[in-house]
Design brief:
There is one protein chain. This protein has six helices and seven strands. Strands 1, 2, 3, 4, 5, 6 and 7 form a seven-stranded mixed beta sheet that branches. The chain is of the alpha/beta class. It is elongated, with a radius of gyration of 17 Å. Helix 3 packs across helix 4.
Length: 198
């Protein structure tokens, strides 16, 4: 069955190649807006599922679609992509010397050509401890250009990795796609073949 990744992220695309399955990519184009009473886990899970379903609904033939989303939570607050240097600097100061949570959800849905007939989703939470950061380090990191499109303004796989003292959980989930969980979800569909409608 054809496999699709509902993402424009080069990082997720690179990670999915490690699972050794041919796949195509399509941009899901959904509105990423958190509900007023939506907690971080529900929010990131909904986004992953909506990404997968949006791309699935465009297809004319059966396929499996993977959607994934990642966000940063610190003391109950969701830290989004930086809107400006000031916003970025504020988030870095919050994370400096502290431990935060990276929540990544991955969702796989099966499309039969007309509707979604099955969906399975996994949520992975990873604890990330940051070193204490000086204002000079924060400014220099912003100047690299890397933080602009990253949740909370940092990428663990890039220059931002030097700020990470310790992680507890999945490194790949922090990058954007938890490989173990994604592999298990795909195997679930591959082993069952035909999945009962829900």
């Amino acid at each position: 069955m054809r496999l699709l990744l509902a993402s424009s992220s080069p990082r997720r695309r690179e990670l999915l190649t490690l699972l050794h399955r041919p796949f195509d990519c399509e941009v899901p184009e959904i509105e990423e807006l958190r509900g007023a009473n939506e907690n971080a886990g529900d929010y990131v899970t909904r986004l992953a599922e909506e990404k997968a379903q949006t791309v699935a609904q465009r297809q004319q033939t059966p396929c499996l679609v993977i959607g994934s989303d990642t966000l940063i939570s610190f003391k109950g607050q969701v830290l989004e992509k930086p809107e400006s240097y000031e916003h970025f600097s504020q988030m870095m100061k919050q994370l400096s010397g502290q431990t935060h949570q990276v929540l990544t959800s991955v969702s796989v849905c099966q499309w039969n050509g007309h509707k979604v007939v099955a969906r399975e989703t996994a949520l992975v939470t990873t604890q990330v401890e940051f070193a204490a950061l000086s204002q000079g380090e924060i400014d220099a990191y912003w100047a690299t250009g890397e933080p602009h499109d990253k949740a909370a303004g940092y990428g663990i796989q890039g220059y931002g990795g030097k700020f990470v003292k310790r992680i507890e959980g999945s490194y790949f989930a922090v990058v954007g796609l938890p490989l173990y969980e994604t592999e298990q979800l795909l195997r679930m569909f591959e082993m069952t073949g035909e999945v009962d409608e829900r």
